[in-house]
Amino acid sequence: MSVEISISDLQVAAGSKIILDDLNFALKQQKITVVIGPSGSGKSTLLHALAGWQELSHGKIEPSLSMEEVGMLFQDYQLFPWHTVSKNFLLAQAGLKLTKTEKHQRAIAIAGQLEVSALFKHYPHQLSGGQQQRVALGQLLLKNARYLLLDEPTSALDAFTKEKIQDVLLQLQSQNQVTIVMITHSIEEAAYLGHEVLVLHEGQLLAQLTNSHVGSPNYRQSPHFFEQQVKLRQLLGGGGVDHDSQTIN
């Protein structure tokens, strides 16, 4: 597993208030990194810093990401409400030097992967929350984003749809070899999706956990999944850890 992005001595301040303080970690290539922590711990600020939308007070992110490489998904999905799913998929490729036929073929392929092919003629208001989420993810992939930055992508979904979207994210990451960084408040979600989990507390990196079992068959029913949840609960509950990095072997 090679290092893709190095974050060194990262600090973000708003006036005299320190939002992120002395963060040092590496994002792994073509993996899912989950950021978890209490409200106000700096999760969204970190995501914006990675996207290049947040000015840094100190430190550096190397290499910095270009706008063409980054796709960012907010909780409202940001679909064009007056266009069909098919048109939304075509518009996502507006900056690519492809023919209309090539764009349509790519849209069909991604739609099949996300199981939204039957929704091509639907408008966003006709879709469920889970369907809108899949379409929004499809847009990011169609714009050739190498880095997907996701701000609580499943927070508004019911439990059943949430699990389906989690499996979609694992599938997308594996099949398209993209790097995903996502925020969540859910310990279960962090344990299920995070090849790496960053635990933030009051703007500082409390721990970085690595999990080699993510994506393995029947992982949701495995003891490894339960063990990762226990570790995260101990960290977030104030139990503390002896080391900054933990790995499930």
UniProtKB/TrEMBL annotation:
<keyword id="KW-0813">Transport</keyword>
<protein>
    <submittedName>
        <fullName>ATP-binding cassette domain-containing protein</fullName>
    </submittedName>
</protein>
<dbReference type="InterPro" id="IPR003439">
    <property type="entry name" value="ABC_transporter-like_ATP-bd"/>
</dbReference>
<dbReference type="Pfam" id="PF00005">
    <property type="entry name" value="ABC_tran"/>
</dbReference>
<dbReference type="InterPro" id="IPR050093">
    <property type="entry name" value="ABC_SmlMolc_Importer"/>
</dbReference>
<keyword id="KW-0547">Nucleotide-binding</keyword>
<dbReference type="GO" id="GO:0005524">
    <property type="term" value="F:ATP binding"/>
</dbReference>
<dbReference type="InterPro" id="IPR017871">
    <property type="entry name" value="ABC_transporter-like_CS"/>
</dbReference>
<feature type="domain" description="ABC transporter">
    <location>
        <begin position="5"/>
        <end position="227"/>
    </location>
</feature>
<keyword id="KW-0067">ATP-binding</keyword>
<dbReference type="GO" id="GO:0016887">
    <property type="term" value="F:ATP hydrolysis activity"/>
</dbReference>
<dbReference type="InterPro" id="IPR027417">
    <property type="entry name" value="P-loop_NTPase"/>
</dbReference>
<dbReference type="InterPro" id="IPR003593">
    <property type="entry name" value="AAA+_ATPase"/>
</dbReference>
